[in-house]
């Protein structure tokens, strides 16, 4: 079982490292949602239609996202293949790869993903096993609340995803831990839940004074199942 105290410590370190980034993402989110006055009180006169500015920024971001959202073509054929059997194997690999993309609904998800990539500067992709269809499923995740830990080569070695959830809802989702979740906590209190993924496992834990593991799944890939596309700065 994972050392949840150590994971919580690493997560808190990542939050401190990315504190400035989180503040910047919060400002960008406020502008996209039309809440510019909270960032710059008095910037616009009372008669100025502030939503017009936010709407212009939002439209520009969405239009640019639609330009880069379409998926590239996937082709496993090599130019040096002259044997028919080799070409058939390559065509089969191409079909399999394209089926993975289609089954994961990436063509649709990438429109939101491209928007998040341009808006927040990075975009995480998470791969998990779809046991019902015996295939990998690729998730395009929101970068909000995401904290990648990278090595000196730029490879993601761990990734933490932070979610805020009411205590009563979390207790309903994990009734076996309802007593620990609601212990000395108001049912409507907002709790911080972290999904930590690395080469060993994926751990979901409640990040409180005494962290509590809610779920843990071993990682058979022995590498972090999440990769992050970083926008050049």
Describe the structure.
With 233 residues, the chain is an alpha+beta fold. The chain contains seven helices and eight strands, in the order αααααββββααββββ. The strands form two sheets. It has a five-stranded antiparallel β-sheet. It has a three-stranded antiparallel β-sheet with strand order 2-1-8. Strand 3 and strand 4 (156-166) form a beta hairpin. Helix 3 packs across helix 5. The two termini are 38 Å apart. 18% of the residues are buried. The mean pLDDT is 89.
| Radius of gyration from CA coordinates | 22 Å
What is the overall shape?
Answer: globular
Termini separation: 38 Å
Oligomer description = single chain
| Largest pleated sheet | 5 strands, antiparallel
Q: Helices and strands: which structural class?
A: alpha+beta
Strand order, sheet with most strands: 3-4-5-6-7
DSSP strand count: 8
- Low-confidence stretches are none
Report mean pLDDT, rounded to a whole number. 89
Secondary-structure element pattern, one letter each: HHHHHEEEEHHEEEE
Beta-strand proportion: 15-25%
Tally of alpha and pi helices: 7
Can you give the helix content as a percent range?
40-55%
């Amino acid at each position: 079982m994972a050392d949840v105290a150590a994971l919580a410590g690493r997560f808190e370190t990542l939050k401190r490292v990315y504190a400035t980034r989180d503040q910047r993402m919060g400002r960008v989110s406020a502008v996209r949602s039309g809440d510019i006055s909270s960032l710059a009180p008095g910037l616009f006169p009372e008669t100025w239609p502030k939503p017009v500015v936010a709407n212009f920024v939002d439209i520009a971001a969405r239009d640019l996202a639609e330009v880069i959202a379409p998926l590239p073509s996937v082709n496993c054929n090599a130019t040096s293949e002259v044997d028919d059997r080799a070409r058939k194997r390559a065509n089969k690999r191409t079909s399999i790869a394209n089926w993975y993309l289609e089954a994961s609904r990436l063509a649709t998800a990438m429109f939101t993903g491209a928007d998040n990539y341009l808006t927040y500067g990075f975009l995480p992709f998470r791969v998990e096993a779809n046991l019902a269809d015996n295939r990998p499923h690729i998730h395009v995740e929101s970068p909000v609340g995401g904290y990648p830990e990278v090595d000196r080569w730029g490879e993601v070695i761990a990734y933490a995803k932070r979610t805020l959830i009411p205590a009563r809802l979390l207790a309903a989702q994990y009734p076996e831990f309802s007593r620990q979740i609601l212990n000395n906590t108001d049912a409507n209190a907002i709790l911080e839940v972290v999904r930590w993924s690395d080469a060993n496992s994926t751990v979901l834990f409640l990040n409180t004074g005494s962290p509590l593991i809610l779920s843990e799944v071993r990682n058979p890939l022995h590498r972090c199942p999440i990769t992050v596309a970083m926008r050049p700065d």
